[in-house]
Specification:
Blueprint: H1 3-10, H2 13-18, E1 24-26, E2 29-32, E3 44-47, E4 52-55, E5 61-62, H3 64-72, H4 76-87, H5 101-121, H6 124-132, H7 137-142, E6 146-148, H8 154-161, H9 166-171, E7 175-177, E8 184-186, E9 191-197, E10 203-210, E11 224-226, H10 242-252, E12 255-258, H11 261-269, E13 275-277, H12 285-292, E14 297-300, H13 306-321, E15 325-328, H14 337-343, H15 345-353, E16 356-357, H16 358-373, H17 380-400, H18 404-418, H19 422-431, H20 462-478, H21 487-507, H22 511-525, H23 531-563, H24 567-592
Parallel strand pairs: 12-13, 12-14, 14-15
Antiparallel strand pairs: 1-2, 2-3, 3-4, 4-5, 6-9, 7-8, 9-10, 10-11, 15-16
Length: 593
Amino acid sequence: MDNVEKIKNRLDIVDVIGSYIKLEKSGLNFKACCPFHNEKTPSFFVSPSRGAYKCFGCGEGGDIFSFVEKFEGVDFKGALKILAEKAGVVLEKEDPQKTNEKRRIYDILEKTTIYFEKNLKENQSVLNYLGRRGISGSIIKKFRLGFAKADWQDLYNFLKKENYTDYEINKAGLIKKQEKGEGFYDRFRERIIFPLFDNSNQVIAFSGRYFGKGGSSKNVPAKYLNSPETILFDKSNTLYGYNFAKTKIRKMDFSILVEGQVDLLMCHQNGYDNAVASSGTALSQKHLILLKKLSTRLIIAFDGDNAGFLSACRATKIALREGMEVRLIEIPKGLDPAEFILQNRLGWKKALKEAKHIVNFYLNKLIFEIKKENNGIINNISKRKLGKVVQEKVLPFVALIESEIEKANFVEEIANQLELPDKVIWEELKKIRKEDFINFPILLEKRGLTKKLSLNKDKKNRKQIILRQLSGLYWWQKDMQQPIFDFQSFEKNIKNKVGEEIFEKIKNLPEKIKNEIIFEVEILYDEFGDIEKKIIELFKNLEVELLNDKLKKIISEQKQAERTGQDQLSLKKLEIYNQLSKQKNKLLDETNN
């Protein structure tokens, strides 16, 4: 028995998933609000009998390994380690001959990290700089900081001696191909190196801060340089320090988001272990979902300048869309969080405690700026100006707030500041159109789930959705001694409707797909009041879709006949089109009644 089977035999999927999110009993299964997307009504189901989970809102599904991979943000090996520990299974060593490309990349990055760490220990000027920034030796060691030498092929030559190929080193994101001629050169040169980790504390990429002379102003390299995306590194799903912060975030029930690596290091060094950093990459929805899994409360601490504030606003907008509670720390102008902590630890602590909601923060900022322009006075002209900027810049944040109670409180506060009736602010809010988010259209209509079976929402995939459900029903009941509907009639009907070719595909589905669709229909149709009626509706919907395909084909043929002057053929095609349209309309009437 291999490691995976040993773990699956010892662990119950309900216990594993239940240790991450709260599950409620629902018939033979369990349900919860999905941890992978924002929802108010539970559409995430766990089947103990099948050892599987499925979200009917976003489409995520799988077993305990895929759940841990997704929730913890690790690869399969990372999930294996986590679950082996839970199960008390001692993992058997892999055969070196079976080491895959991913493992080789991990090995390259680990050896590179050790090499960079050695370089740093030998470079006193860099150590002095880190010391001036307030970074201790213990933090340098914990986060495995390093240094890349100025030589163009220093790391490349080292890794070649370690018997790694050009292909492997390039796949790890450590070298670049020369523009002229043959050969490669190091991506990171003359830089302080900050390794980026996955949730299993394995190095997956690097970020490098330039620490050199540079030459002329035109040739000065970028201040920060990150690894390119690789088979291990997805920048939109990686936060610097997340591997060290995740436990503390869950325990403290809030996370601190900073921009830079040094900001992050200073936070952790001073006891704020629940801090993570975007590390120079654009903050994405995936980043916020990663944090939201641990806590819905977020405090943003970006640089105390206008650029930092605008970055914080962008991050807040994404976080509010995800239903998170967001507050901003006021950083003194001209400082970044690392400098603020170094200069005034008590001031940082106070600012953290007094962090304000983005609406309050922005409103206070705008009032301050208006007063500053008018020598501390707000007159009628400045009040109108304030009203306009509040309408443009503050109300969109209010519109994104999910809680109607919280929204009403902010409306009242804004109205008071502008000396306007509440209803004026409410009217302006109605004009703000929030962005629409398209979710994977899965269709539920049982056990209190509010997402109804509306096959009109995704016309392109409508036929595939119906065929998937019919296939699931077929395999769900095929081997049952007492099917809950007339299976022989159902089998005959599905064969006649879809034809021999598609029916053969349904009969030869891979085991993995088969298990997925059986689980789906178990949730959708188990204990359904009148399942025979539902199946009739499905077949009618399928017939409508098949007629739509025929109508498209006929109209295309009619137009072709018309273009080539075949008038009789064109008329005949129109007659067929009208007949098929009548059939379709009749079916639609029957379905709607």
